[in-house]
Amino acid sequence: MLNASLPLTELHRHLDGNIRPNTIWELSQKNGLAIGAKSPKDVADLVYIKDKTSDLLAFLEKLDTGIGMLATLDDCRRVAYENVEDAFNEGLDYVELRFSPLYMARTHNLPTVDVVDAVIDGINQGTKNFPVRCQLIGILSRTFGVQSCAKELAALLSHKDSLCGLDLAGDELNFPAEQFRALFAQARDVGWNITVHAGEAAGPESIWDAINLLGAQRIGHGVAAIRDNKLMDYLAKHHIGIEACPTSNFQTGTVENTAQHPLKTFLSRGIAVTLSTDDPGVSAIDIQHEYKVAAEVIGLNKKALSQIQINGVEQSFTTEDEKRALYALARAR
Ligand SMILES: [Zn+2]
Known about the structure:
alpha/beta; TIM Barrel; globular; 8 strands
């Protein structure tokens, strides 16, 4: 299914949405925190989404269990480190991991700036031990409102050279892009790349706003683009990629069933679709699973799957040199 002579990348994975059940269990024990589970297996039963949730917000609530266990900076460091290990174990050559430091910090009142520092440290330790190329994207959690996002951005900007981009995530319906214009202008001013969750809970207009108001170069999910021909043409023409996450889109109720995911249409219209897991720690999936779903459930052929792998390199927020290095690495195996 995967083309081994092409790089395997993932561009849309929340490291704070990928905390291992075993780690959640161990942190609950270490930190003396009640969790409503008696074993690591119980934790898996608690956090994994079995079928689907009612909507995006119910899906996001599933992440709170793991986040609630982050009582120290070391815990944040550990989660970041393990994300690099997971990416390596899944066979990824390159991964962009994203995180919301405010979300990670807030249960136990950790200093947001220090959380950013701890995550970067965990990633650096991880990439020393596991040969996978890794970049970090900062998230503004729109659900907490513009003022909190301004503080979150300041914390991220204090480590600006360690991050490659900025994202907007959370409650898309109630916190539209318009409110975050000034913050994304700041991010663009320091040279960061921009990706935005859009067209997941809201319609095509939310994708237009992500592009026109925030300067999005990629769109997280983007499912609603299927309802707007002009938008699909625009995405293709301007090489604005769609980070498709089919299992997540099913679980949030964004698509009725996975077979109806629009990624096949997006590809046929020349949009640079990539494949990602989103929050593998609650969806109980890995990147291989998403390729399997794309092939067996959505019906993509080998050529389309290879195109997705190429899109994953071309759409990555990395240098042309690094892209060439990734292709060379894959060709050599
Ligand atoms: Zn996401």
